[in-house]
Design brief:
There is one protein chain. The longest helix has 25 residues, at 127-151. The chain contains six helices and four strands, in the order E-H-E-H-E-H-H-E-H-H. 27% of the residues are buried. It has helices at 12-24, 42-57, 69-77, 80-83, 108-123, 127-151; strands at 2-7, 29-40, 61-65, 86-87. It is an alpha/beta fold and 153 residues long.
């Protein structure tokens, strides 16, 4: 799959569905090309980490290829680089990339839970990420609790 433009929480549900399908189908290798990606947020990177870990349990792997300099810096800053193989300057063989269209139909609660799951993957990587995302996670958990109360009859 090739990320084109911004890879962020808005398109994270589509990415998550695609990666979950790869895990469910026991894909051997999932290649995420970042050569055309203009930026990533922590939700996108957290999904890469979580999906990489799930693929490993079935004998597969997720590989990031050709990140731009700024995206490589982001991957290193959050520790993604340490747990997900990153290949730079690769000439990719004639691969067929999948164009992911539309948007996943998630409720607000489902979207918030996806964002939480992605950040839990990042927090589990190192203490620096725990410190970076503690306030965000506290706020997100408070919002989830409020949302849960509102949705009850």
């Amino acid at each position: 799959m090739r990320a084109v433009g911004l890879a962020n929480m808005k398109n994270a549900p589509i990415l998550d569905a695609f990666l979950n399908a790869g895990v469910a189908e026991s894909q051997q290798t999932v290649c995420v090309d970042l050569s055309a990606c203009t930026g990533m947020d922590s939700t996108f990177m957290g999904l890469l980490v979580g999906s990489s870990q799930r693929l490993r349990t079935t004998g597969g792997k997720l590989v990031v290829v050709n990140p731009t300099e700024s995206n490589l810096k982001l991957l290193k800053t959050l520790g993604v680089f340490d747990v997900v193989p990153v290949l730079e300057g690769c000439e990719l063989p004639a691969l067929e990339f999948v164009h992911l269209k539309g948007s996943a139909n998630l409720s607000t609660l489902q979207r918030m839970e996806l964002i939480k799951k992605a950040h839990e993957s990042l927090i589990a990587l190192n203490e620096a990420n725990r410190a970076k995302f503690t306030a965000f996670m506290t706020s997100l958990e408070a919002d989830l609790a409020k949302f849960g109360r509102k949705s009850k009859p």
